[in-house]
Fold:
Amino acid sequence: MLKSKFGRLFNALDEFLYMPLFPAVVSAFILAAYILCIDLIGLALLVAIACFIMVRKDDITPLLPLCFGFVCLFRGFDALKSVAIYLILAPFLISLIYHFIRFPLKKPSLGKLFFPFFLLTCALFLSGIFSAYLHLYANGLLYAFTVGPLLWFAYFLFGNYLRPPEGFDLKNYLSVSVVSSALIMCLAFFWACVEQNAGAENFVIDGVTVGFANTNNVGAMILLALPPCLFLSAQEKTPWLHLVTALFFAVTIFILRCDGGSGVLLAFSPFLFIFTYLKSRKENRRKFVISVIIFVILVAAALFTVFLVKGYDFMKTEFDVRTGDSGRSPLYDLAVKLFRENPVFGAGLGYSDTGVIGDYSPRNGALRIFNFHSTIFQVAGCMGIFGLIAYAVYFYKRYEIVTENSSAFNLFIFFAFTMFECYGMIDTCEFNIIPCMLVLTIMLTVTETENRKPPLSFEKTINAFVKR
Structure:
C-alpha cells in the first residue's frame, strides 16, 4: 500500500517536471532564496531535485531550469570558499556517476562541436606557453578548465541524455527555462537596488553589487533570452504574458546602463519586430503590434519625464556614456601589444596588469581573468593566432548548427546568438561562464538535438496535441 502511494507520488512528480510551470516554480524559489539570503538551503533543495532526476530518469531535460538559475542563489564569491557548498554538491556528483552506470551510452553522440571544443581546450591550455608571462600561467588554469572542458562536458552530457517523451515540446521548455532564468536575474538586480538605494536619483542603475553578476552580465543574459521570449509569444495561443516579459526585458536593459547592450538591442529591434510579426499566429499579430506601440509610448514618456526632471545635460551625458567606449580603448591597445609580442599562443589567460589601465585583474577568490572587454581582443591578446583559429572554427560550427534548418525556433535562436556575439565584441560575454556561456551551450545542444528529429507525421502531431 505504502509502495503504491510512493509510486503515485513519484509519477506525479515526473509529470510536474515536464510541465512549463516547473521552470517558473524553480525560478521563483531561487529568487526567494536570494532575497532571504538562504543560498546554501536553496542549493541543497536544487541538488535534491537534480539527484531525483539523475537517479530516476534517463532523460535529463528537467535539469535545464536548475542549470540556468542556480547561480542566482549567491550574493558573492565568498560562497565558493565555504566547505559546505562542496559537501552539498557531492551527492549530485555521485548521482551523476550513478546515472552513467544505470543508463550507459551504447553509441555516444559526439556532436558537431566535439572537434571545435577540442581545439578550444587546446588553445586555452596552451595560451601563454611561450610568453614572458609564463610565471602567471597557473592563474588562468581554473578559468581555462571552466571555459573548455566544463562546457565541453555539458555539451556532451545534454547532447546524449536529452531524451524527452515523444511529442514533448523541447523547444518550448528550453525557451521557458531561459526566459525564467533571465527574469529572476533582472528581478534580483532590482531587489539589490532597493537594498542599496541605488538608481533612485538618476533613473539608471550603476555600481550595484548583486553578487552573481554585474549589469553587463544581466544585459548579456537578456539578449540571449529576449528572442526565445518572442518565440513563445509568436507560438502560444495566449501571448500576453510573454509579450509583457519581452517589454520588461527591453526596458530593463536600458535602465541597467549595460555598456553597449542597449545599443545592440536598438540595432536589432527592427529585425526582431518584423520577424516576430511574420512568425506569429495570425490571431497574435495584432496583440504584438499593440505591445510594440505601448513600449514606444512608454519609452517616449520616460525620456520626456527624465528630460523635465534632469534636463538636457544629464541626457547628453547618459547618451555619451552609452555610446562611448567606456575606457576600453587602452585595453584594446594593450591586447594588440600583447598579440604582437606573443603572436602564436598569446600572453596567456593568467596574464594580469595592475598598471594605469585600472582594476581589470582577477579579484581575490573570484573566478575571473584579466578582462579586455572584447571577445576578439581577449582571444588575440591571451591566446594568439592559435586561439583565433580555434574560436573561428567554434563560431563557424555554432552557426552551422543554428542555420541547419529554417524553422522559426532556429531563426529566433540565430537572433539570440548574433546579438550576444555583437555584444561580446565590446564586453566579456564569451568569458562569462555561468550562466551566459552555459546557457548558450545548452541552447546549442537543444537546437542540434531538434535538428536531428524527423518532422512529425500528421497523426503524431495530433496525438501530441491531444496529450497536452
Observations:
- The CA atoms of residues 133 and 429 lie 25 Å apart.
